[in-house]
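User: Can you help me understand a structure? I only have the sequence.
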Amino acid sequence: CVDCNVTFYGYDFRAHTSCISEAEKYEGALYRPPKGKAADGKPKKRSAQEVWMDLVEEAAADPSAAPAPLRSFLSGLGGYGNVPRNEKKFGNFVKNSLNVRSDGVVQELWAFLSGLQQQQAAKDAAAAAEAEAQEAKEKSEAEAAAAAASAETRAGESGSETTRKREKKEK
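Assistant: Let's start by predicting it. Here is the structure, written out as tokens:
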């Protein structure tokens, strides 16, 4: 690779899908990524389309949860890279790509996938609420520890002040 100076043997280059930029290469520790990009290894926020495609791919990978008439269509949807998440566009996509002519099947397929989406959203909301509660608990514990430490420091300072006063009186 010209950018990162890596030599590939055989077909190893196929696994090399991302590379460093020239700025990262030559600026080293001074490099600052553009705004909106993930930094410090934190996961980047996923787009709504990426979340939808993961849902469609999961449904296609395990069609046993779907009603029997929809299973073959779900596995067909899994092969496409960009399934629309708008109901009307989804219907047109399924009719044209999977050659489905029954509006009832299209509606059932949409209802199944949107139901999975709602279930996933509920799980995500519960996980976010739990994480927020954990973060608030840790923050309050940290504040309590800081308050206790500052109280001990103040007590130590007042004790040293009284010691200084005694020493002055003795002199």
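Now, to help you interpret it: The chain has a mean pLDDT of 79. DSSP finds five helices and no strands in the chain. Let me know which part you'd like to focus on.
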